[in-house]
Amino acid sequence: MNISVLGCGRWGTFLAWYANKVGHNVILWGRENSKNYIGLKETRKNDYLSLPEDLELSNSLEKSVSFAEIIIISISAQELRSFANQLKSLNGIQGKTFILCMKGLEATSGKRLSQVFGEEVGKNINLAVWVGPGHVQDFVKHIPNCMVIGSENIEITKKIVQELNSDLIRFYYGQDLIGNELGAATKNVMGIAAGMLDGLNYRSLKGSLMARGTREISRLVRAMGGNDITIYGLSHLGDYEATLFSVHSHNRKFGQAFVEGERFGKLAEGVATVKALRDLSIQYDIELPICNAIYEIIFENKNAKETLEDLFLRPVKFEF
Ligand SMILES: NC(=O)C1=CN([C@@H]2O[C@H](COP(=O)(O)OP(=O)(O)OC[C@H]3O[C@@H](n4cnc5c(N)ncnc54)[C@H](O)[C@@H]3O)[C@@H](O)[C@H]2O)C=CC1
Ligand SMILES: O=C(CO)COP(=O)(O)O
Asked: Is the distance from CB of 25 to CB of 50 less than 8 angstroms?
């Protein structure tokens, strides 16, 4: 099958490598002037992997879209709306299958990425999300993982899984698009929290963070029309090791750098997502104490240690 991957950063480049590895014809697209694209064009490698010879690199969006039956998108989540707008103007996108491989919520609206994409591109496409745990650094060493693909149409989900499943990635069929998307986006916020715990030498609190983090996000998922149990699946809890504990996680590193007064320059999606969560917590009248604490530390200059201690002074309550 012909597959294009739009976005040639850390994850997009891996996705193209993977689609090629499992036997597809692949184009990897990047913006002509992007640092990642220029680097790949010059050397055919990045910090994580080398591109196989038969994988085509292109900076033509038109060509990449018309070539493929399945189009995978992996750019920064906050850029998706304007990018979708660009795609909408291309001929021949109708009937194609798009897979969003990003983890975030639109900061200004709290919308899920499939909502954002659907609003811009319209209904005459198939749309799915691919989320769950996985770092390129592990996959290129042939360390396998389990991930989840979900959509509103189980036949589309099954078709994608059939094309992409392998002994490197075992896929599960997602059953709750709302829960999968919220779960994937919010695990990044818990990753930032974990990094802050690392930076404060409070590592032993990560177990509690896992228990209480899943609990607060499951309340939000239920309020937003999803199934709260999804949060205990691959898109959220299943991604905690790769985020809360992994040396590779950008969100965890961002959190640690933040409390240590350092700058972390790479994309940490949880930063924008926590803004969306602040508004969703008000809109749905759901308490999100951990997410709110992270918001206050990052955007309201609250002291991280004191804000954490304040969480302990909240009234005692039942666990579930
Ligand atoms: N296990 C998983 O499912 C993983 C998912 N991700 C997700 O993948 C997404 C991308 O993350 P990374 O690859 O780490 O980021 P990155 O910063 O390495 O790459 C993002 C790419 O998007 C491109 N881009 C940004 N704005 C654009 C626009 N308006 N139009 C076209 N291209 C644009 C940039 O040039 C860059 O090449 C994030 O949402 C992240 O959460 C990342 C790693 C693992
Ligand atoms: O989603 C990921 C792992 O599953 C990547 O997490 P980071 O973006 O925090 O590195």
From this structure: no
Mutate to test the pocket of ligand 1, among 36, 58, 76, 188 (most ligand atoms within 8 A of CB): 76
- Alpha-helical (H) ranges within 45-121 are 61-67, 80-88, 113-121
Residue nearest (by alpha carbon) to ligand 1 atom 19:
9
Assess whether the C-beta atom of 134 lies below 6 angstroms from ligand 1.
yes
Instruction: Answer whether 152's CB lies under 8 Å from 174's CB.
Output: no
2 and 163 Cβ atoms separated by less than 8 Å: no
Question: How many CA atoms lie within 13 Å of 102's alpha carbon, on the beta-carbon side?
Answer: 31
Specify the residue for token string 């055919």: 44
* 187 catalytic residue (yes or no): yes
What pTM was computed for the model?
A: 0.98
Structural domains in the chain, sorted by start: 2-174 (3.40.50.720), 187-312 (1.10.1040.10)
**Measured distance CA(240)–CA(294) in Å, rounded:** 17
pLDDT tens for 21-57 read: 999 999 999 999 999 999 999 999 999 999 999 999 9
